[in-house]
Amino acid sequence: MTHSRGPGSEHAYADFGFESVPRQEKKQRVREVFDSVADRYDLMNDLMSLGLHRVWKRFALMHTGLRPGGTALDLAAGSGDLSLGLARQVGQDGCVLSTDINERMLERGRDRLLDAGYAGNVHCVLADAEQLPLRSRQFDCVTIGFGLRNVTDKAAALRSMYRVLRPGGRVLILEFSKLSFESLEPLYDFYSFQVLPRLGRLVLDDAASYKYLAESIRRHPDQVSLRALMEAQGFERCRYHNLSGGVVALHIGYRL
Fold it and tell me: pLDDT tens-digit profile of 98-116?
């Protein structure tokens, strides 16, 4: 479905996968996707990445620069993989704020953190990455894992991340990206648009959510474009690391 766009109306719409929808609808539709997949979110992550998502997240955690007593913010925290790793790094004297826009996903993450014994130094908050209800300059590290592509206004989210970072702090953006090898794109497309939706139907009786997943990856800025977007919002010394041949990239930027 397409929408006609008159002059000056380009900001009234946002990409929801390959579909163009009114901007105010996107957040609700993203919530609906994650409401649908929440119960088997971790299982599907393991199946569709063959367990590699755990390796990618461990790599990201190696670059936080956090020390015991530090402060960290995990956006789009989902079921809490990165939040748990951050909590281990800052220890009992530190603090981790785990946030998500989806209440069901946040509840899953909270339960997982509690089961792992993290309570006093980890707090879970329902929050929109574009408009963080937090004071400025309070975190040593901000992470967002596989969540930026779901954000309606990526520039606004990046500005929020920059605002809440302390000088010297860093942001880590772990996200699906563009393959480094063009010759593999047909195979990747087949997996993305044929295998993933069928896997979603088989495990969750939900092909549509994983069709959206594949489409949202293709709409997400590539490595160079995302680095430029980060720089435009004030981040410095921005760089990225390609993982698994560019299937995923870790972008790092600093507030100096």
Answer: 999 999 999 999 999 999 9
The rounded distance, in Å, linking the Cα atoms of 166 and 120 is 22
> pTM of the predicted model, to two decimals?
0.93
**Mean pLDDT within 166-173:** 98
What number does CATH give the domain 36-179+215-254? 3.40.50.150
CA–CA dist 94, 88 (Å, integer): 9
CB distance 41 to 33 below 8 Å = no
The mean per-residue pLDDT over the stretch 72-85 comes to 96
DSSP for 198-248, please give it: HHHHHHHS-HHHHHHHHHHHHHS--HHHHHHHHHHTT-EEEEEEEEGGGTE
pLDDT score, position 6: 39
pLDDT 10s digits, 222-237: 999 999 999 999 999 9
The domain spans of the chain are: 36-179+215-254
Which residues touch 88 (CB under 8 Å, ≥6 apart)?
Answer: none
With a CB cutoff of 8 Å and minimum separation 6, the contacts of 131 are 156, 160
